[in-house]
Amino acid sequence: MPINESRIRDLAGFKGEDAPVTSLYLDVDGRRRIRSRDVELALERMVRPVRERHHQAGQTSVCADLDRIEEHVKAGIDRSHVRGLAVFSCSAHGFWEVVELAVPVRDRLVVNHTPYVRELEAVVAQHERFAVLLVDRQRARLFLFQQGELLEKQEQFDLLPRHDDDGGQLGKDQVAGHTAAAAHRHLKQAAAAAFALYQDQGFDHFVLCGPDEVTAEVERDLHPYLRERLAARVALAVHAGGGEIRRMAEDVETGVERAREAAVVDRLRQAVGSGAGGAAGLDAVLEALVARRVETLLVSEGFEAPGWRCRSCAWVGTLGRGCPLCGSDMEQVSDVVEEAVEEALAQACKVAVCSDNADLDVMGRIGALLRF
């Protein structure tokens, strides 16, 4: 099943305390890494320097994590449906979680006191539920996708009347009238089937595919809820192959996600510009998180920065070593941005990981819409 916010929050809530957590993200997409050996070599390149570093430091738990991760990957992955792999391990505490994804991820290996979940947050943010209806005057096909996985598939076929179906008793004009009526019923049923799917399983966006004159007629019969969710009309034939349909849905989804990112970044830019309701830049955002003022955290994909975290009171910042809140000695962390993401999740904030958004990059690659 697709990864969801609940499972991510459960992962983020695990604390290694006296032993760190090893988090692996591995691209296993067969379109880029054709052989299993290609996947294993990519893993070896990431693991080798990390193993040497932690072996010299005497961190046996991390070395055991890496051994188990390598064994899991070499045992084989069903790459017919898995394109991305996330593994979280803390051998010292018996913690082991594997997340198989139908979408690719960027290779990454992180050792930290908690699971590195920002990549999973990006997957959830960028891959909502999409319903796709392909239709012509006789056939309708309905698909439901989430995070690259096909969750539901339905099909209906309605033969249209022909002149010789009744032995030639009806004239051509009468047959044409019956054919038009039958086609209209078919299209109404297709629209009703899409709404029934929405009622049964729910989805965020809807894509309508077929000839222009057919999709225009279907659109008139759509329930208002579906019209609100109509993300695109695509001239894709009803008999298109499964791979072509999936790629089309992914392209539409990418466009929707970029538009949503642009909208939320524009809200942030306006809030920061007005001096109320927004914070931009690492220090300002961390200060707002500590004050529990953040409603939505925005982070540029790939943004990292060193910093400090207090284990006593959860203060996070870029300067240490004494905690400005409780006076305790703080722990230096390699990526305080990931600490910010974890803290935002713990506070039930929304997290938006934005890809290639120049406006957010200009504001410091991190920002926050504030509750107050």
In short:
By secondary structure, this protein is an alpha+beta fold. The chain has helices at residues 5-12, 36-56, 60-74, 118-126, 172-201, 212-221, 224-228, 242-274, 282-290, 336-346, 358-362; strands at residues 21-27, 84-90, 95-101, 108-112, 129-135, 139-146, 149-157, 205-209, 230-234, 278-280, 294-300, 307-309, 316-317, 331-333, 350-354, 366-370.
Descriptive notes:
It is globular, with a radius of gyration of 26 Å. It is an alpha+beta fold. It starts with a helix and ends with a strand. The chain folds into 3 domains: 1-126, eRF1 domain 1 (Translation, Eukaryotic Peptide Chain Release Factor Subunit 1, Chain A, 2-Layer Sandwich), CATH 3.30.960.10; 127-240, eRF1 domain 2 (Nucleotidyltransferase, domain 5, 2-Layer Sandwich); 269-372, Ribosomal protein L30/S12 (60s Ribosomal Protein L30, Chain: A, 2-Layer Sandwich). It contains 11 helices and 16 strands. The longest helix is centred in the last third of the chain and has 33 residues, at 242-274. The strands form 4 sheets. A 5-stranded mixed sheet has the order 7-6-5-8-9, with helices on both faces. A 4-stranded antiparallel sheet has the order 3-2-1-4, covered by helices on one side. A 4-stranded mixed sheet has the order 10-16-11-15, with helices on both faces. Helix 2 (36-56) packs antiparallel against helix 3 (60-74) and helix 5 (172-201) packs across helix 6.
